[in-house]
Design goal:
Elements lengths: L3 E6 L3 H12 L4 E5 L6 H6 L1 H19 L15 H25 L3 E4 L2 E2 L5 E4 L2 E10 L3 E3 L12 E2 L1 H4 L8 E5 L3 H12 L3 E5 L11 H13 L3 E3 L2 E8 L4 E7 L5 E6 L1 E4 L3 E3 L6 H4 L22 E3 L10 H15 L13 E3 L4 E6 L2 H7 L3 E7 L4 H5 L6 E7 L5 E8 L2 H13 L4 H5 L10 H9 L8
Parallel strand pairs: 1-2, 1-6, 2-3, 6-17, 8-15, 9-10, 9-15, 10-11
Antiparallel strand pairs: 4-5, 5-6, 7-16, 12-13, 13-14, 18-19, 19-22, 20-21, 21-22
Helix pairs in contact: 1-9, 3-4, 3-6
Bound molecules: 1,4-dihydronicotinamide adenine dinucleotide.
């Protein structure tokens, strides 16, 4: 008999969720993790610590921007960097310990160390070889730097180093106007750094609804971030203090340089699959270093599965979690399923940005007839009361059937609001279904309903 029914490699959101669900479904499960703590990139050096930093700096920003307007007078707080870092570390350790607790509760064995797969059905950690009926690779991703740019995680950093800077820099260049660049850029801009974002394309957050992206850039510019778009970074050179970023503007080929204390390279991530022994096993790979799987997350090797950032699809913790649950169900003979058409994306800046489903640009390209219901947060009493009336909800529905096809929000709590649309889409709802649903007043969610009303006879408050 094999030592385990399932061994999962990696304890990030994909791996730990797969482990817990597999154990809940009665399997004997082990999860191999080489880090000192569980939770993977997301909990240790990604989603969670960055959210703590975004929260702390948002609070600081509120004291500067809005306290006086509400009659709250007094000196604004100063930043104690060491304490802010300790707060962030506490948030992380609370969460990683929580997963350790869940592993114990569900009787998941944590095998500490880095795994290799010497043969199908075998996982080697240190000198020990463990056998399993099924193996799930959930090893996630790592930052992909630019050619020739050396990351030292002190001056030239990825998101990992950006979370543990020794002090608040006076200036920062962010390479890449994607999710990481804008979230971390916002953190340091609120702490007083002059942040310049250099982006290769002519838009920020490529792939996002164009109207949202434009509004987002305008709001971030107002918050002090500078943008250099259509600029290809040529090199990053470290000096005695700080570094120099050289870029070429695509429109006229002119070259320019910016000096900064810190350079954050946020140009995307790539699957982290090195050292597992996949080549020797003959595992078929897909584009950009991803592991190729079938519709049930199985690779070309029977009994070897892969999920999360290591395979195709958006590199998002919640996509990995869904695949983790689904693969555990498949392995226990159930019908695990992920609806890839309804995976929300959220950027946790202020305001938040969230989306699900298709954009207008995609629908146009497909030649599909659609209608748009848009509602500005300026018409939402709750948002106005808390100085967060910038932005809008844009709901897109099929022109004929009224079925919801997508939603794009920039505004307060967008990352939470999007989920009522996700549920609606899962149920194949129409815009009218949302419009006919009573929404409590005064809530931000009324803006979603108003956008749904705008798909029909019209919004009330616009
Ligand atoms: P990204 O793919 O979101 O953005 C990278 C940006 O860098 C793109 O706009 C791209 O055009 C630009 N770029 C690439 N090469 C460049 C060059 N040579 N010069 C200038 N610009 C260049 O990647 P990011 O922000 O690094 O995030 C990595 C992954 O992590 C993404 O898949 C993202 O979805 C995920 N993530 C998600 C978060 C969330 O859901 N809130 C938070 C953080 C990361």
């Amino acid at each position: 008999m094999a030592d385990f029914d399932t061994i999962i490699i990696g304890a990030g959101p994909g791996g730990y969720v797969a482990a817990i669900r597999a154990a809940q479904l009665g399997a004997r499960v082990a999860c191999v993790e080489g880090r000192e703590t569980l939770g993977g990139t997301c909990l240790n050096v990604g989603c969670i610590p960055s959210k703590a930093m975004l929260h702390a700096t948002h609070m600081l920003h509120e004291t500067h921007e809005n306290f006086e307007k509400m009659g709250l007078i007094g000196a604004a707080p100063k930043v104690d960097w060491t304490k802010m870092q300790a707060y962030k570390d506490d948030v992380v350790s609370g969460n990683t310990k929580g997963i350790e607790f869940l592993f114990k509760k569900n009787k998941v064995t944590w095998i500490k160390g880095w795994a290799t797969i010497p043969a199908p059905g075998q996982v080697k950690v240190g000198d020990e070889v463990h056998s399993a009926k099924n193996i799930v690779i959930a090893t996630g991703s790592e930052a992909s730097s630019l050619n020739g740019v050396e990351i030292d995680e002190e001056t030239v950093v990825t998101s990992t180093g950006a979370l543990t800077l020794k002090s608040v820099p006076k200036s920062m260049v962010v390479i890449g106007a994607g999710v990481i660049g804008l979230e971390m850029g916002s953190v340091y801009a609120r702490l007083g750094a002059q942040v310049t974002v250099v982006e290769y394309l002519d838009v920020i957050t490529p792939g996002m609804d164009a109207e949202v992206a434009k509004t987002f850039q305008r709001i971030l510019t107002k918050q002090g971030l500078k943008f250099v778009l259509g600029a290809a970074v040529q090199s990053v050179t470290k000096g005695k203090k700080g570094a120099t970023v050289t870029y070429k503007l695509k429109k006229d080929d002119s070259e320019a340089k910016i000096d900064a204390d810190i350079v954050l390279v946020a140009t995307g991530r790539k699957p982290y699959t090195q050292g597992l022994g996949l080549e020797a096993l003959g595992v078929e790979m897909g584009p950009r270093g991803t592991i190729k799987t079938d519709a049930h997350w199985q690779t070309n090797i029977p009994g070897l599965y892969a999920i999360g950032d290591a395979i195709a699809g958006p590199m998002l913790a919640h996509k990995a979690e869904d695949e983790g649950m689904a693969v555990a169900e498949v392995l226990s003979g159930k019908h695990g399923h992920v609806n890839y058409g309804v995976i929300p994306g959220v950027i946790y800046t202020t305001p938040e940005v969230a989306n699900v489903g298709q954009t207008e640009e995609q629908l146009k390209a497909e030649g599909r007839a659609y209608k748009v219901g848009k509602f500005p947060f300026m018409g939402n009493a709750r948002a106005k009361a808390v100085f967060q009336a910038e932005g809008f909800v844009k709901l897109i529905a099929d022109a004929t059937t009224d079925r919801i096809l997508g939603c794009h929000i920039i505004g307060p709590a967008a990352g939470d609001l999007i989920h009522e649309v996700c549920v609606a889409m899962e149920f194949g709802a129409s815009a009218q279904d949302l419009a006919l649903t009573c929404h409590a007043h005064p809530t931000y969610s009324e803006a979603v309903r108003e956008a749904a009303l705008a798909c029909g006879d019209g919004a009330i408050h616009a």
